[in-house]
Amino acid sequence: MRKLFQLIILNVVLSSFLFLSLHVFLGKPFVPSLLDSLFSVLTLIPFGIGMIYQTRYMILEAINIAKISFNHLITAIIMSVAAVYITYFFLQIVLSSADDSYIIFVKTTIPFRIFASFTGCIIFTSFIYTRLFYIRSIQSLKTETDLNARLKEAKLDSLKFQLNPHFLFNSLNSIASLTISSPENARVMTTKLAGLLRKTMKKDGVFSTLADELDSAENYLEIEKIRFGERISLDKKIDAGALGFNIPSMILQPLFENAVKFGVGSSAGKITVSLSVAKKDSYIEIEISNPYDPEECKKLKGEGVGLVNLTSRLSLTYNRNDLLTINASGDIFTVTLMIPTNEKI
Questions:
Q1: Which one of 46-50, 161-165, 253-257, 294-298 scores highest in mean pLDDT?
Q2: How far, CA to CA in Å, does 301 sit from each of 166, 262, 266, 304, 312?
Q3: Which of 8-12, 89-93, 159-163, 274-278: highest mean pLDDT?
Q4: What are the sequence ranges of the domains in the chain?
Q5: Which of 4, 44, 62, 317 is the most exposed, having the fewest neighbouring CB atoms within 10 Å of its CB?
Q6: What pLDDT shows up at residue 2?
Q7: CA neighbours within 13 Å on the CB side: how many for 179?
Q8: Maximum CA pair distance of the chain?
Q9: How many CB atoms are located within 10 Å of the residue 92 CB?
């Protein structure tokens, strides 16, 4: 409907231009000039309507450009000749009682009128196809952008919910053992594990606050403390001003898992996991370090899913690959995250 309205507006403009050319610039009588300009444009309306509906559902990828160009060329010639002669015969009938000078003028300008009508049809056809290609390209770009966004979101969700199965299996085994040796600890561990899993599954957004993520990570560490007893302790230094900022959901727990696995796994004694959070310029700096034995760590089997997963998520979320750094200095293993600050929620 909108396209038809635009076509009508175009016809009004063309009729006005043609009328001014005939009446004002060429000095032709008012009524013949008005009738001539109106009918000359009206006879080409079927061509315009046909073009609009022909291209409405056209599949651009399937068209043969040479064939369709030839078809439009022939159609434009036929429509131009038909429109000019229909106008000529119409004016002969309407102006039969008037001065024949205008009819003679129309007859002598028939070749020029055919050429002008043909040129107008070609320009209109070119405009329709240019507009069609532009709209389809915008739609294609939007569709591609939407698909990429959905794919990116799906990848993020997939990475976010790749929970470490070893942690889950070990926790369940520990609960099974504790039901005999320490029923109270088994109950506490079951409650904490259920709470952690429930909170994990409820996180359906890409981001959550640093405070929420720290709470989940510390819940995870509390579960591990029940498994390993006094062998694990947490030393934390947190900038309270950073707690309200957004960070990717489920991004801290893999770091704590890594610290526990390689800290406890490579040491027979107690380990302290150190957590430091600070607001620095336009970043939140999160640093987690733990003692480890490089030689013992080589004996531990692992697929390295945690840090690889985390690196992929940061890259997908921020389109950057420099936000995670790893430093193994002496017997201390440190992972540092630099999270660009978002708005507080």
A1: 253-257
A2: 11, 10, 12, 9, 21
A3: 274-278
A4: 2-156, 161-340
A5: 62
A6: 65
A7: 6
A8: 119
A9: 13
Residue 238, class by beta-carbon neighbours within 10 Å (0-12 exposed, 13-18 middle, 19+ buried)?
middle
- For 326, counting Cβ atoms within 10 Å of its Cβ (0-12 exposed, 13-18 middle, 19+ buried), the class is exposed
Per-residue confidence (pLDDT) for residue 343, from 0 to 100: 47
Encoded tokens for 131: 């507009």
Strand order in the sheet with 332-340: 232-238, 271-280, 283-291, 332-340, 324-329
Cβ neighbors of 86 (< 8 A, separation 6 or more) are: 39, 43
CA 299 to chain centre: 44
Please, what is the end-to-end C-alpha distance for the chain in angstroms?
A: 45
List CB contacts of 48: < 8 A, sequence separation 6 or more.
Answer: 7, 10, 11, 124
Q: Would you state the structure tokens that stand for residue 314, as one six-digit string?
A: 């940061």
Strands 232-238 and 271-280 come out as parallel
Over residues 263-286, the pLDDT tens digits come to: 776 667 788 899 999 998 889 999
- CA-to-CA distance for 208 and 291, rounded, in angstroms? 29
Q: Provide the 8-state DSSP code for 9.
A: H
CATH superfamily of 161-340: Histidine kinase-like ATPase, C-terminal domain (3.30.565.10)
At 329, which amino acid appears? S
